[in-house]
Amino acid sequence: MDRREIAALLAYADRLDPTRAPTTKEAAAERLTQWADLLADVASTAPHPEGRHWDASQAVRRHIATSPYPIKPSDVGGLWAAFRRDVLGRHMDPVPNVDPDDQAAYRAALAGHRHAIETGRAVATPRALLPGESGTREQRDQFAAERLAAFGTYMPRTVKDALAPLRPVRAERERLAREGKPDALDVPCTWCKAETGQPCRDMRLNPTTQATANRRRTTPHPSRLDAATARQHAQETAA
Q1: How do residues 65-103 score in pLDDT, each as one tens digit?
Q2: What is the b/e burial string over 184-204, where b = at least 16 CB atoms within 10 angstroms of the residue's CB?
Q3: Distance in angstroms (rounded) separating the CA atoms of residues 185 and 189
Q4: Quick check: 40 and 47 in contact, CB under 8 A?
Q5: For the chain, what is the mean pLDDT?
Q6: Which of 1, 16, 22 is nearest to 66 (CA)?
Q7: Model pLDDT for residues 13-36, shown as the tens digit of each residue
Q8: Which residues fall within 8 angstroms of residue 139, CB to CB, at 6 or more apart?
């Protein structure tokens, strides 16, 4: 909150409890300076993903209504810290609209969005339930079995383990299916346009010849994994 917002908050507190209001202009100015310094990082209002929005004036009102002690900056700051922890605990960072291979830009975009959440300038995105957090064990086992069946004919585990180094992509997909984790290859990639079932690729440009070449990535693009996670969550919820 800025100095103007703090002044309005203190005026509201004095209106609710006039017996505790400063009696001189000097005391009022000193209190305003103290509160403005200590609550500079506290938002006056902030959204909550479940509707329990933050309002500093309501924090003041609750304290005066329930406590026999004079209100202090920490009475507001402590509630704000708890609110912020709760919001961030429910938040899942969205995929930034930047090149995921540009790690500096990617991290900067994530940090900027999270700072907007922390300061109440943006609404948190609730985290979807992860595999294993919803549905019965029987439902999860059935879902994993259906995913494994999609890979083809049964093969003894010992044979699969022996062949795993020769077919790493399939081995990894089978592992994800057994563990009930999202498989990025279950969906197409909107970044590199890889089709369902095909690994992601990076485009490389030869600066001398201007020729382009594709190189298979060992990991999927982050946006593709996010899409697969959302798809699996939707399927589990529907079940």
Answers
A1: 999 999 999 999 999 999 888 887 776 666 777 777 778
A2: bbbbbbebbebeeeebbbeee
A3: 8
A4: no
A5: 81
A6: 16
A7: 999 999 999 999 999 999 999 999
A8: 236, 239
The pLDDT of residue 25 is 94
What does the longest C-alpha to C-alpha distance in the chain come to? 86
**Amino acid sitting at position 54:** W
For 177-211, the pLDDT digits (tens) are 888 889 999 999 998 889 998 999 988 777 777 66
Check if the beta carbon of residue 126 is closer than 8 Å to that of residue 174: no
Range 34-51 burial, b when 16+ CB lie within 10 A, else e: ebbeebeebbbebbebee
Q: How far apart are alpha carbons 239 and 221 in whole angstroms?
A: 28
DSSP classification of residue 216: E
Q: Look up tokens 């339930």; give the residue.
A: 129
Report the predicted TM-score, pTM, of the whole model to 2 decimal places: 0.47
Distance of alpha carbon 167 from alpha carbon 64, whole angstroms: 67
Cα 161 to Cα 158: distance, rounded to the nearest angstrom: 5
Phi, psi of 216 (to 5 degrees): -65, 135
